[in-house]
Amino acid sequence: MSEHQQEIDPVTGYETTGHEWNGIKELNTPFPRIAIWALAITVVYAVVSWVLLPTWPMGRDYTRGLLGIDQKTDAQAAHARMEALRDSWKSRFAEGDFAALAADTQLMDFARPAAARLFADNCAACHGAQGQGKDGDGGTGFPALDDGDWLWSSDPADIAELIRVGINSSHDETNVSQMAAFGKDGVLERDQIDQLAQYVAALHTGKADQNGPAAALFEENCASCHGERGEGEMGVGAPRLSDNDWIYGGSLQDIRTTLMNGRQGVMPAWEGRLSQADRNLLALYVSGLAAQKEAAK
């Protein structure tokens, strides 16, 4: 073998390069044709794309391409179509005929995902993802919406109005509800608050002494809002005290804190933030949460 003649590999028939690593010799094989074709196709595709599609930036503009494709315009058109489709059914909810809307099961089934999204975006932070509420947590509690136990009204029209104006909100027509701070304001002595707390805590058990001094305290200070037996007063925001469902916690200490310092829940007014159709749709959704919970059992 001459100085310039390369060794031929007896198995493949290719020349070797003269490089060897631990007995393994490197072959001088040609570049794979498939790789050459793939590279050529890629170059052709790139050139065609440069000509047909928006490609090159030119300062504040860009080359449009012969096909005139504009993704921004396409996205805006798709969004407009989506809005038109949504308005075609959502406009029904602006009318406020809640009985007819609730009876239209096909419409409600179609609208329920949008209603669930409205609830998640605007209500779930306070009332829970499923409307389960949040009881006493550092002195702040939010009522459950899925238990059929209403503070104001279960009628969708009333719920829609409540959503519109809020509770103790800045709206001129807001609903107002506040529990007095019997201890802080000096209405009741501490021992009276202790007696009343124990009485309220026992109401749901049916073992509260209806003839004792605590019952008299309840009648004088609480019954006008919460009812003679703690059954609540729907329409004034006074919760039921006889069912063991609590907004601010039902332990003796929680009840003492409530009697001592009072409570004033706040719900914002959604007029100006949600359209009438959105508020009506949300009211129908909220009014049906208890039935959804029961159906899921």
Task: Tell me what the structure shows.
This protein has 297 residues and is mainly alpha-helical. The chain is 45% helix and 7% strand. It has twelve helices and six strands. It has helices spanning 33-52, 71-90, 98-103, 105-122, 124-127, 156-165, 190-202, 213-221, 223-226, 252-261, 276-287, 289-296, and strands spanning 16-21, 24-27, 57-58, 61-62, 134-137, 140-142. It has a two-stranded antiparallel sheet with strand order 1-2. Strands 3-4 form a two-stranded antiparallel sheet. β3 (57-58) and β4 form a beta hairpin. α4 packs across α11 (276-287) and α7 crosses α10. The longest helix is centred in the N-terminal third of the chain and has 20 residues, at 33-52. The chain is elongated, with a radius of gyration of 36 Å. 22% of the residues are buried. The model has no long low-confidence stretch (mean pLDDT 89).
Report the order of strands and helices: EEHEEHHHHEEHHHHHHH
Based on CA inertia axes, which overall geometry fits? elongated
Low-confidence stretches: none
The tally of strands reads 6
Instruction: Determine the number of helices (DSSP H or I, runs of at least 4 residues).
Output: 12
> Percent of residues in helical segments?
40-55%
Task: Provide the β-strand percentage band.
Answer: 5-15%
Radius of gyration: 36 Å
Structural class: mainly alpha
Output mean pLDDT: 89
Distance between the termini: 89 Å
Seen as an oligomer or otherwise, the chain set is single chain
